[in-house]
Fold these 4 entries.
Entry 1:
Amino acid sequence: IQPVARFELQKAAPAGDGKPRDGATVYAKVCQACHATGAAGAPKTGDKGAWAPRIAKGSVELVKSVVNGKGAMPPKGGGADLTEDEIKAAVEHLLGLSK
């Protein structure tokens, strides 16, 4: 008797070339969907009034919010494969666009 099927679990291959993505790339692929439109209450990119209190908290707190999720934003902003360095780069990029 031969088995009908075989099932094997493997670790997913890293996206792209395996190199860390810069902040602009992460923003464009993960963050922009909500922050460009204000979807689900996300502060819109470039809205200085909405970002001022967040900027005052500092980037360390903002990175923590992204890693853990906040409000309607899921952990890692929905980019489950993001590293903490990529998240930091995306936060700095978004802050640069919103100052």
Note: The chain has a mean pLDDT of 90.
Entry 2:
Amino acid sequence: GQDNARMGGMKYADLNGDGRITPDDQTWIFNPVPDLSFGLNIELGYKNFDLQMFWQGVLGQDVYNNQKFQNDFWSVTDAGSNKGDRVLDAWLPNVNTSSTIPMLTTDNKGDEGRTSSYFVENGSYAKLRTLQLGYNLPDKLLSKLRMSRARVYVSGQNLLTIKSKSLTCSDPENANWAYPIPTSFSFGLQLDF
């Protein structure tokens, strides 16, 4: 009942059982609201050293991975343009029949880019948003320099992302080709006189 279905292509479910794929077979497949949002601050100190960490994440969140339009299909948009390397693992008869990536084609007769569960992925993640290591100069040295406090530190932001193995885009917060969240490093000196 699916118009223009092809071997190795997308298959759509006949949810209402009428033997055809129509708009009546649509259902809700996407929940962008996480079951749990969390954050964790850790501050540790030992002698003159200090360490600060901030973790943030979500669990049970769906993301709609728009990057699959470019990475998994030749025919949906920009036919014949360069694609991601995921297409190297596309479905092929008698060779790669266990692949979940549709067989390549230059003709999108089956409208395979329409909204479907193929694009919905597990967007759960934990990110190390901030990591900072600092050192406070000893009091003996501070008195010679006529300072009450001096601290040097190195800090990094967005250093690590732990995500679901099933997520095919690089960042669960960037499934729609938005600007990436940058990783940055800084060095600093805090002085009190």
Note: The chain has two helices and seven strands.
Entry 3:
Amino acid sequence: MVRAGFAIVLLILAALPMALTALIVWAVLGRPILFMQTRAGLDTTPFTIYKFRSMHDTRDTEGNLLPDEDRATPVTKLIRRLRFDELPQLVSILRGDMALVGPRPLWPETIEEIGRLGYHRCRVRPGLAGWAQVNGATLLTNPQKVALDVWYVENRNFLLDVRILFMSVGTVLFGERLNEKRVQEAEAFVASLNEGRSGQPAQTVTERGE
């Protein structure tokens, strides 16, 4: 009930930024304004995630989509920089598919690629803000993101969630910064979990965007 009430308040506060973002996406990229994907939620239960489009669908001569960087425009790059493209996920929080804080939701196929640690990170609801996102985000390798996510799952508490929310604001305002100390701490933590267990997490993980 508290989560739903908080999500409603955030939706009201985000109404104007969402409306402006929708108009910009419509003017720059056209329709549809939103795109949806299936992601793995709590206990790997699939759910549909919604985001504002931030890339056009230009393809090469063989029909393959161009790299993400080539499909974004200066305006949509700013939208992504400010995280406005993620605002529709407040609806997913209201529906109970996501939490405000938690590991970012990945494709079900990606969870399978990661292996045991992929399923481990799905022990909590995926979040709009996450420990990996405030400690490097795109500056991290995929195994580093997984390590930070698993560390969060095992150490989460209310104060940590509040801390992540404040750090998320800093990331939006000042940009992404790699925190090597926290990455090393998370990697050491995951290594301790692996001791005495067979199988290793996949070293190559594909995190898919639009």
Note: Residues 198-210 have pLDDT under 50 and may be disordered.
Entry 4:
Amino acid sequence: VIIDEVGKLEIDNRGWADAVERLIRASSNNILMIVRDTFTGSVIKKWNISDPLIFRVPGTDPKDACEKMLDEK
């Protein structure tokens, strides 16, 4: 599942917050969230995400990121 993008609205329980919550809690799939650097810590804390893989763009080779995500599966 790809969520583009989780930000201030969702952190403040607005926007797509309910849908993000349901996906995180109910999904047996991996979830890829696009989050601005300034909100990463808040998103991890809000949804109690353990052991997140964090890729910074630019700076991450897309092939390396894909391989790392597949290894986590």
Note: The chain has a mean pLDDT of 92.
